[in-house]
């Protein structure tokens, strides 16, 4: 899913946070791709309702597909598996759990008044 939304009540130039979608736009155990400052970011909502944000680029395939990955857990760690070659990434740290030398960027994400906001540092 890709979410395109204009005119959200965000002022990223003053707060550092960008509203990207409504919380209800995100389905549990699925991701969505959002565009913030020219970056594709994958935003995920877990079954428990927690939010995570990572880069959308799969470093193994070179494709922008992580938002379409399989959300799950490894142990107690929330994860996403690439839909291309199935490498598993921590949603908390961005580390590839199959190859710790590889990571994807993670971004702060929060819920504010029903809107999901991402901060690109």
From TrEMBL:
Q: What class of enzyme is it?
A: oxidoreductase
Q: Which residues form the Rieske domain?
A: 18-118
EC numbers listed for it are: 1.7.1.15
Domain of life assignment: Bacteria
**Nuclease keyword on record:** no
Q: What Gene3D superfamilies is this protein classified in?
A: Rieske [2Fe-2S] iron-sulphur domain
Q: Which Pfam families match?
A: Rieske_2
- Output the Gene Ontology terms for molecular function: 2 iron, 2 sulfur cluster binding; metal ion binding; monooxygenase activity; nitrite reductase (NADH) activity; oxidoreductase activity, acting on paired donors, with incorporation or reduction of molecular oxygen
Q: Does the keyword Nucleotide-binding apply?
A: no
| Name of the protein | Nitrite reductase (NADH) small subunit
């Amino acid at each position: 899913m890709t979410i395109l939304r204009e005119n959200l009540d965000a002022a990223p130039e003053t707060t550092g946070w960008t509203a990207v979608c409504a919380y209800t736009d995100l389905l549990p155990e699925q991701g969505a791709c959002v565009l913030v400052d020219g970056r594709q970011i994958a935003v995920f909502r877990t079954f428990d309702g927690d939010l995570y944000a990572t880069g959308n680029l799969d470093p193994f395939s070179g494709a922008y597909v992580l938002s379409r990955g399989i959300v799950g857990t490894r142990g107690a760690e929330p994860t996403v598996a690439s839909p291309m070659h199935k490498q598993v990434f921590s949603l908390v740290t961005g580390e590839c759990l199959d190859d710790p030398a590889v990571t994807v960027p993670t971004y702060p994400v929060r819920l504010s008044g029903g809107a999901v906001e991402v901060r690109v540092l």
